[in-house]
Design brief:
single chain; globular; 5 helices; about 150 residues; alpha+beta; 2 domains
Length: about 150
């Protein structure tokens, strides 16, 4: 119960974060983007329960002809050595469940040009987002058979 009490104490902080993000997405003009202080981030991070499921919203479809990016959409970006990325991904295995008949994972894993990173080692970038599957997918029946 103590951890839930701490969660409720921090609810005001979390509520402020959600309100900030909602005002940005609603188009409300914001003078300066909100930024948390390290102490606030650490407090929030420490109070998260370790069994909270990872909830990723699928990318929104872009209107035809739109040059809107996916920046700010739900997703994960991990950069660094292969060992670091692998160790983080091993902790995020539940994200694999988003590869299913309704949604699919959009994955990128690539090397980084040594001219743009440390020249003494090979660095990598890993990205994951979730997309909704198209309604007319030809092999959806096959996928359902494999999935079940």
């Amino acid at each position: 119960m103590n951890s839930f009490k701490k969660f409720l104490e921090n609810y005001e902080f979390t509520d402020r974060i959600i309100l900030e993000f909602n005002s940005i997405s609603a188009g409300t003009p914001v003078q300066k983007p909100w930024s948390a202080k390290k102490s606030e981030i650490m407090q929030m991070w420490r109070n998260f329960r370790p069994d909270i499921p990872i909830l990723i919203q699928p990318l929104q479809e872009k209107p035809k002809g739109s040059n809107r990016t996916n920046y700010g959409e739900d997703g994960i970006r991990i950069t660094g050595s292969f060992n670091f990325i692998s160790s983080v991904l091993s902790r995020l295995k539940e994200i694999i469940s988003y590869e299913n008949p309704e949604t699919k994972l959009r994955l990128v894993f690539r090397g980084i040009d040594r001219n743009k990173s440390r020249p003494d080692r090979q660095s990598f970038a890993f990205y994951v987002n979730v997309e909704n599957r198209g309604k007319g997918r030809k092999n959806k029946k096959i996928w359902l058979t494999i999935w079940n």
